[in-house]
Structures are given as C-alpha cells and as structure tokens.
Write a structure and sequence with these properties.
The protein is mainly alpha-helical and 77 residues long. It has helices at residues 2-11, 15-29, 36-63, and strands at 65-67, 73-75.
C-alpha cells in the first residue's frame, strides 16, 4: 500500500520539481565515495524522473495550440 502512495506522489510532481530532483541525482552520482549499488539506485531513479518529464512535456505539447493569422487553431509545431 505504501508503494502505491509513493508512486502516486511521484506522479504528482511538477516538471520543475522533477528537474530539481534529477539535478540532485546527478550530484549524488558525481560523488567519489558513492557505492555501485547506490549509484545504480540514483541512476534508476533519475531515469524514471526523466521519463516522467518527457511524458509531462509531451502531454503539454499536445495541448498547446496557436492561433493562426486567419483565426483558426493549429497544433503546436
């Protein structure tokens, strides 16, 4: 049950929060004293965050439209 709650909380973060967390993961990976297990964990969490960012941005891109000069709506390119 706790895992579902944790996953739901991860899905409710903003793109900015996700990028901030990715930066934290990068800093952790750059440390000289990080173990192999910890580096794999940080990498895996970072990749999950990147995937979430990609999905959020893709979703927004699909919603964004611009108004053409003739007043019609066109998809964002």
């Amino acid at each position: 049950m706790a895992a579902k709650k944790e996953q739901k909380e991860k899905n409710n973060i903003s793109v900015e929060e996700a990028f901030s967390k990715i930066e934290e993961k990068i800093q952790a990976l750059e440390k000289d004293d990080i173990s192999l297990d910890d580096s794999f964990k940080e990498y895996q969490e970072g990749m999950t965050l990147l995937k979430q960012c990609h999905e959020m941005i893709e979703s927004v891109e699909k919603k964004v439209q611009k108004i053409a000069t003739d007043g019609s709506l066109e998809d964002f390119e």
